[in-house]
Amino acid sequence: MNLANRITLARIFLVPVVCVILLLHYNFGSFTLNGQTTTGGEVIAAFIFVLAAATDGLDGYIARKQKMVTNFGKFLDPLADKLLVSAVLISLVQMQRLPAWVAIVIISREFAVTGLRLIAAAEGVVIAASKFAKWKTVTQMVGMVLLMLNNFPFSAVHVPAADIMLYVMVAMTVLSGLDYFLKNKQMIQTPHAS
Asked: Hey, what's the signal peptide range on this chain (predicted)?
């Protein structure tokens, strides 16, 4: 197994680590700013989440740079991303920091775009990540970290950054999903009988 695939596997193995630390409330201390409490466990989980998310770009870069792109890696990389995002979203719902409808919208979009990519792949077409998709990923990562940290450090200045990012990530999720389907509608249109 090459280095890029090992990094991708490491991202998958970090998924339960993040969730366990978030949900089992280990006593790593806590601090409160303006009535908002953030625990040491949440800080550690957010750090591991950021580390895991950062490996997404790293494994792809290494695979391309060292010409180690494999079918296993092409399959595993997007799966690892979806596992990480879905697991953290569901954990945030469990923690009552994220409305369930937001998690449903984001996870549904991920499945829909994956389905579109599978249809395209069957036709020999590769659908590259769009600019919207890249911005969607950035807003999701920032939003989820703020939610994991219970709006720290913005709670100190009474700025609801986590709530704002929640709506930004939903908007970017929907827009990027629409963008994929509008640009690739020929993949899902029923062929006309001749």
From this structure: none
- Beta bridge pairs of residue 39: 30
Homologous superfamily of domain range 3-187: CDP-alcohol phosphotransferase transmembrane (TM) domain (1.20.120.1760)
Residue 78 CB-half CA count within 13 A: 14
Alpha-helical regions (H) of 66-148: 71-94, 100-122, 131-148
Q: Where are the domains positioned within the chain?
A: 3-187
pTM for the whole structure: 0.89
- Euclidean distance between CA atoms 172 and 133, whole angstroms: 8
